Amino acid sequence: MLIKRIIETSISDHLTRSNKAIILYGPRQAGKTTLCKTIINALNLKTLFINADEGRYIDALSSRDSRKLRELVYGYELVVIDEAQRVPDIGINLKILIDTLPALKIIATGSSSFELANTISEPLTGRKITYQLYPIAQCELKEHYNAFELQNMLEERLIWGSYPEIFQLVGYEQKYAYMQEMSADYLYKDIFMLQDIRKSEKIKNLLKLLAFQIGSEVSLNELSSKLNISKETVGRYIDLLEKTFVL
C-alpha cells in the first residue's frame, strides 16, 4: 500500500515552476526515497538517481569542477541525490550545478539535518526550498482508513509508531523485529558519525529517561544527576538527537 505524502504535490509544483533545489530532510526509513521515486514517476522527467552511499559518484559530486559535474548529469532533466550529507562539499557542488545548469531540477535528501544543513546553508542561500518528511501522519492515513478504523489503530500506532514499513507488517513478532532492527541499524548511526560520542550508553539511557517523561516538563538538572554527566552534556546530546530526528 502506497500512502500519498502531503508534501508530494508541493514538491512537484516547485520542481515544475522553480529552478531552486529541493532539500528533503527526514529520519531514516521515513519514506524519503519512496517519495522521490513517486515524484520521478509522476513528472516523467529523465532522471539520474544517485545513492550517495555508492562511491562511484562521490568523486564527481565533490569535485568543485563544473566540467566533471556537467559530464555527470549530461542528458538528464532531474538529479536526485539520496543521503546527500555523505558527499564532501555538497553545498558548493550543488551551487555550481544550479548556477551553470539552471534548467536542471535537483532534489537532495538527508537523514541528518545537522550535517547536511551545515554544508548547504551558505552556498545555497536563495537557491533552495526545504522540506521535512516525518513518519506517516494521521491526515495521510485518512485516504486509506475511515474514522472507526483509525480509532482502532490508535493504540498500536502509539506503541509501534508510524514508519511506513510498520503498515506492511502483521503481528507482534514482525513489528518487534523491525523495531529492533531499526534501533540497532539506524537509530544512533548518524549521531555517532556526527560527533565523537565516547559514552554511547549515556545516549541510550538518556533516551529511556526522556521516554518516561513524555508529556512532562524535562529538567536538564534532573537528567544530569541521573546520568552522572554535566547539564551541558545533556543539553548537547538532546540537541544532537533532535537534529538527527531521533527526538
Q: Could you please describe the fold and organization of this structure?
A:
The chain is an alpha/beta fold. It has two domains: 8-132, P-loop containing nucleotide triphosphate hydrolases (Rossmann fold); 188-247. It contains 13 helices and five strands. It has helices at residues 8-17, 32-43, 58-61, 66-73, 90-100, 113-120, 138-141, 147-160, 171-187, 189-194, 200-211, 220-227, 231-243, and strands at 21-25, 47-51, 78-82, 105-110, 128-132. The protein has a five-stranded parallel β-sheet. The longest helix has 17 residues, at 171-187. The model has no long low-confidence stretch (mean pLDDT 88).
Topology:
Elements: H1 8-17, E1 21-25, H2 32-43, E2 47-51, H3 58-61, H4 66-73, E3 78-82, H5 90-100, E4 105-110, H6 113-120, E5 128-132, H7 138-141, H8 147-160, H9 171-187, H10 189-194, H11 200-211, H12 220-227, H13 231-243
Parallel strand pairs: 1-4, 1-5, 2-3, 3-4
Quick gist of this model?
With 247 residues, this protein is of the alpha/beta class. Helix content is 51%, strand content 11%.
List keywords for this structure.
247 residues; 5 strands; 13 helices; five-stranded parallel β-sheet; Rossmann fold; single chain; alpha/beta
Q: Tell me the name of the CATH class of the largest domain.
A: Alpha Beta
Spatially, the strands of the biggest sheet line up as: 2-3-4-1-5
- Secondary structure tally, helices: 13
What's the story with the biggest beta sheet? Answer: 5 strands, parallel
Q: In terms of per-residue confidence, which ranges show pLDDT below 50 for 5 or more consecutive residues?
A: none
Would you tell me which CATH topology of the largest domain applies? Rossmann fold
Query: What is the domain total for the residues?
Result: 2
State Rg.
Answer: 20 Å
Distance between the termini: 27 Å
Number of strands: 5
- Quick one: CATH superfamily of the largest domain? P-loop containing nucleotide triphosphate hydrolases
- Strand percent estimate: 5-15%
Topology as H/E string? HEHEHHEHEHEHHHHHHH
Structural class: alpha/beta
- The CATH architecture of the largest domain is 3-Layer(aba) Sandwich
